[in-house]
Every structure is written in C-alpha cells, then in structure tokens.
Write a structure and sequence with these properties.
This protein is 48% helix and 9% strand. The protein is α+β, with helices and mostly antiparallel strands.
C-alpha cells in the first residue's frame, strides 16, 4: 500500500518519540534532560545495566551506543512489537488520531509531483534573489538597509525581490520549460479571468522564502513596496506543498537552535524573526500570516516546553495574545505552557532592537509572564469591582476559562493561582472595591505570586503590614478610647485564638465560615496572618495548611497557638476532626466577637457625639450599650473553661469603671 504524500511527516509531527519509547524503558533521571528532549535509558534491545540508549526527542531519532540500534518512532515500534512497517504506521496513526488513508494507486505519482513542485519553488527563490540585485530593486535594497540588513544577512535569509509587472516570473520559468500546471500548482501564478495568460501572484514586493522543517522551499511571503497596496504582506496561497496553519517561518533553524538551549521566541512577522535571529536570538519563529493555530502550537511544544510569545506593544498584539490564550487552554499539558513578553507600547521586537539594543529585548524576555497572569489581566484590567455583582461576574468568567483546561492537575493549579490573585484584588485592598490592573492589589505587582516571609526572614512584627493585606493594628485613638479597654482586646484575642485553632484542627469547617473569617478584623497581627493562610489554603488545599503556616510564620507558630491555655482546653482542639463540634464552636465564638464589636462601635459613636450636652436619644443609646456590655460580661463569666484573662475575668477594671462613670455623670445619667 502506498501512502499519500505528507502522511508520514504528519504522523511524525503528531507522535512524540519519547512517549513511544517511554512505554518500554525507564529513563535515567541523572543523565536525562527532558526539557531539552535529551533522554537516556538502558537499551530495550540488548541486556545492559548502564544507560547507553539515547533518544533525541526533538530530532525524532534514537541510538544505542552499545548495540548501535537506531531509528525513529516507526522503526522502534517495528522492532519492539515485531510488526511490519505498515502495521507500525497503523499503530502510531491510531494513537495519534490519524485516519489511515485508503489505498491510492496514484500515491507515487503524487509524490513525484510534490518533488517537482519543490524544484519549481527553488527556481523561484533563485530568480527573486537575482532580481534584488537589479536596478529596479534599488528602492527595496534601500529599505532593507534601513532595517539593518547587510548583504550577508540578505544571503542568509535568501531575501529577493519580485519586480513590478504581470508576467515576469511566469516568463522566466516558461523559458526554462517549466509546465504551466507546475507554476500554477506551486502558487506562483494565477489564471486570468479574462482569457489572457496567467499572471504572477507577487509583484513589486520584497520576497521572503518560507521553508518547511526539512528545509524545502514551500511558499513565499511578500512585503509590498507600494504604500497604497491593499495588502502590506502577502503569503502564497495554500498548495500541495504549503499549509499555512501547519508551518512556521524559520522552523528548521529555530528547532536546531532550541535544541542547543536557545529560548524559543514566537514573533509576529518575518522582519521580527530576522532581526531577532541576527541579534543572537536564533530560535525565533513566526506564524504565517495568521494567529497561532493548534497545529502550530504543537510544533512549538515539540521544540520547547515553554515558548515565549513576543507581542507587539499595541492593541492588535494584545488582542492576538488574548485569542491565543483561549486556543491554548484546552491543549495545556503538564510542563507544556506559554509565556508572554509584551514589548513597550507602539514597538515590535525589530523596533526595540534598533532603538535600544539587544539588552532591552533581553530584559523584556526575562520579564515574560506565565499565561495565567495574562488571563487574569484580560479579565480584570480597566475594570472596577466595587459591587458583589461585578465580583460575581469575574468569578463566573474565570470559572468558565478554567473549565476549558482538560488536565485536572493543571486546572487545579490555575484555580489556586487565580484565587490568590483574586485575594490580592478583593481582600488585600481593604479600602473598598478592587480596581483591576491597578494599585497594590492589581495585576503584575508580585510576578512570583504568593511570597510569604518567615519569621527567620524578618516576619511581620511591630505592626508591619503583611503584603497580602492583613488589617493594620488598632489606631492610637482607638486604643486610648474609654470603650476599647485592654481587657476587651484580651477578650477578642482569646476568641480569635479559639476560632483559628478550631479551623486549623478541623479544616473541613472552613468553607461554612469563610465569610466570617474574611470579616474577622484581628487585633493580633499573628492572628491576621493565620486567618489569611486559612482563607488561602484551608478550602482548596487543606492538606498543605499546616506546612504553609510553618513556612510563612515559622515552625513554632502553630505550636504556640495550640499550647495557649484557653485553646488547649477547647474540646475542638482535643478532638480534632469533629465537624459538628467545630461548627457549633465557631458559631458561638463569632457571635461573641460580633457582639462585643457592635457594642464598642455604638459606644464609640456615642462618645464622639458628646459635645458637652446630652439629649434623650444619646442617653438611651448609652443605657442600651451599658446593658449589652453587662450581658456580655455575665455570659463570659459563665464560660471560664475557655476564657481566662486574669483574676478580674472580663469585668471592667477600676480605671475603666471610673472613666465610664465620669462619662455618665457628664450627661446626668446614672446606670442602674
């Protein structure tokens, strides 16, 4: 059976040799470098203990330095499965999702035609290169010189020129006895609708040959010299040789450079690729007149696990990046992703190179951001989230994007990263609604994501504000207030400690009280840090909660909390994992906190209203506040098992009692 032209190339493109061989061997972890496609193992074809079997995943070949076995994926399947060549093709085609072609008696004839078309394309390359040296191409040469390309660069990239006129290339190829159908089939000319001779596709354009991964000329890209031309850049039409969605400009050389460790860069156009490669960024490619397709993305991942998409710093460049995100999300695999390097506004890589040099481009590439960050930027930039409805709309949009990811592990990690960014936006900024892409909680403030500091690294002591938005310590005016006593602070700290210890020992209760934890304004900074860690990891990653606490606050933080007397006596701490008991405990503790907070707020407001005179409404408010305070004290005195702040319990101390009495006397009110 003969296979149609291009079938085996497509099969080899879709099948990873390391995946095929990996089913039969165990990779040597010390010698192998999976990121570079360089893998070693004991040979599956002869018995040995050393790793002398080498797989070059990028080139698609294996070789054993012991028994000298060598071949590609098809050869490996033949040898290990003891099958024929066509049976090996069928096995791999089934794995790759390729339908086996039906028998085609004319396949050999078609292959011969593809070879002939490739030969015609080479003749066209030579013709255009010669035309660039003629008098008619002086303007084109001047343009290329202004773009920084000398003669050596023109030769390396085989740049040519298509002169103005309708049949220049046609006549040149016909003079070499090239058949009409081959010129038309190569996409170099089009038939006339007026019954005249076919005419050239490319006229008055600088010509860039497009070669496939094997180095065969398969198409051209032409840049118009006429500023009034409707198409600034024009690619060859799709032909038997050329499928623009399955090829990349500079594919072969970039693949070789990437194999040597060069960062794979995806630019937008031919001149960007040429400028980058000439500046030392040899592993640079570009899609061919379209946005990156899923097939091109697979080609990129065959060359590099994490290509860098170098975007023009304009609206069109950003739109292209956003479209690429939606296309790439369902295709993500472990270790396979994209990073995005955004050029300064109004510049492309070529502009930046000529204006500021290699260092400036390298700096932009070094700051390339992961795809999850650009996704966040798209969903939040320029938007204000100052209402529950707007926040809910953001949550819904992010959930829909995460659902596109097929790999469950990657989906989970995206959810965690986006939740962290959301936390920074909504909770890290305590002054009101979040503003996407701006301020201290917006996009791009901490490229590394959540970076807690341990006590050993300086901690967050003495009222220093944690970077994830812990509430500040009470203001001096609050601490000095008559109605915000030290004992009440102790009361609140005890409640906070019990709440945090209960949630840590029984994390399954956290989702039920997530809103309460968010609203809990901790007076103790260590408690604030613990609360934020609970909100971050307690719901999505409870198994990591204790480790994250130890990392962020030091190894003794949790032990110190659980060893407090009022915490150690709590039944929830002594019986961790009891969800019902934890739920009842948290409900009671939060109710106590909210009661004392409401009381203090009312008294503080009443105190501020005092201006030397009191009206009946203010007197009534103070009476109600005093009665509420007495109820809270009585309730607390009945709960000595879990609350002990000293010999005076939660009663008012002498200074506070005297001060409170003075306040009441000022307004002519005596508490019963």
């Amino acid at each position: 059976m003969s296979l149609p032209p291009g079938f085996l190339d497509e099969l080899r493109t879709r099948v990873s040799l390391s995946d095929v061989v990996g089913r039969k061997v165990m990779w040597d972890q010390r010698k192998s470098q999976p990121g570079k496609g360089d893998l070693w193992s004991p040979c599956p074809f002869h018995h040995e203990k050393t790793a002398s079997f080498h797989v070059d995943d990028r080139k698609g070949f294996y070789y054993c330095f012991g028994c000298h076995a060598k071949g590609d994926a098809l050869k490996f399947v033949q040898e290990t499965e003891n099958v024929s060549f066509m049976e090996a093709v069928e096995i791999l085609a089934g794995e790759a999702g390729l339908e086996m072609p039906k028998r085609d008696p004319k396949a050999a004839e078609k292959q011969d035609r593809r070879t002939q078309l490739a030969e015609v394309m080479e003749q066209a390359v030579n013709y255009f290169r010669l035309q660039l040296k003629t008098q008619g191409a002086s303007e084109a040469r001047a343009y290329l010189a202004r773009r920084g390309l000398d003669q050596a660069a023109l030769d390396r990239w085989e740049i040519g020129f298509a002169p103005d006129g309708w049949q220049n290339l046609w006549d040149a190829l016909k003079g070499k006895d090239v058949a009409d159908d081959l010129i038309l089939g190569a996409g170099l000319a089009k038939p006339s609708n007026k019954g005249k001779r076919p005419y050239d596709v490319f006229r008055n354009r600088i010509m860039f040959p497009i070669r496939d991964a094997r180095g065969r000329a398969i198409a051209f890209g032409g840049r118009a010299m006429d500023p009034n031309d409707n198409a600034k850049y024009l690619n060859s039409p799709e032909t038997e040789l050329f499928d623009k969605g399955r090829n990349l400009y500079n594919h072969g050389p970039a693949r070789a450079a990437s194999g040597r460790g060069s960062t794979l860069i995806v630019a937008e156009g031919y001149m960007d690729v040429i400028a980058l490669a000439e500046a030392g960024f040899a592993s640079s490619v570009a899609p061919l007149g379209t946005a990156v397709t899923d097939n091109q993305l697979q080609l990129l991942w065959r060359m590099s696990d994490e290509p860098v998409i170098a975007l023009d710093g304009d609206t069109a460049g950003l739109r292209a990046a956003m479209r690429l995100i939606d296309m790439a999300l369902p295709l993500l695999e472990a270790g396979k992703s994209l990073r995005f390097a955004i050029m300064p506004e109004g510049k492309d890589p070529d502009d930046l190179l000529r204006a500021e040099g290699v260092e400036a481009v390298q700096a932009v590439l070094d700051q390339a951001i992961p795809m999850v960050r650009l996704l966040w930027r798209r969903e939040t930039e320029g938007r204000v989230f100052d209402s529950p409805e707007r926040k809910a709309a953001l949550d819904k949009s992010l959930r829909e994007k995460i659902k596109l990811i097929r790999d469950p592990s990657i989906r989970q990690h995206y959810a965690e990263d986006l939740k962290e960014l959301r936390f920074q936006l909504f909770r890290g900024n305590r002054d009101g609604g979040g503003r996407g892409g701006q301020g201290g909680t917006g996009y791009g403030q901490r490229p590394g994501g959540y970076q807690p500091r341990s006590r050993a690294q300086g901690g967050f002591r003495d009222g220093q504000r944690a970077p994830w938005g812990a509430p500040p310590a009470p203001r001096s005016t609050t601490r000095a207030s008559i109605v915000a006593s030290a004992e009440e602070h102790d009361f609140a700290r005890v409640r906070e400690a019990v709440i945090l210890a209960t949630a840590i020992t029984t994390p399954t209760v956290i989702p039920e009280f997530e809103v309460n934890l968010e609203r809990m304004q901790c007076l103790d900074m260590d408690h604030a840090h613990l609360r934020d860690l609970l909100l971050r990891f307690g719901i999505d990653a409870p198994e990591r909660l204790r480790d994250e606490i130890a990392y962020a606050l030091g190894p003794d933080a949790l032990e110190n909390l659980l060893s407090l007397r009022h915490v150690a006596l709590s039944p929830c701490v002594r019986k961790p994992g009891d969800l019902d008991m934890a739920s009842l405990t948290l409900a009671e503790e939060f109710a106590k906190l909210e009661s004392i907070a409401g009381l203090n707020a009312e008294l503080a407001e009443a105190e501020e209203d005092l201006d030397g005179l009191a009206d009946e409404a203010l007197t009534w408010r103070l009476r109600q506040a005093a009665e509420a305070r007495n109820r809270a004290v009585r309730s607390e005195n009945e709960d000595k098992a879990t609350y002990d702040v000293g010999e005076n319990g939660a009663r008012l101390n002498r200074d506070e009692r005297d001060a409170f009495g003075d306040l009441l006397k000022r307004i002519g009110f005596t508490a019963e």
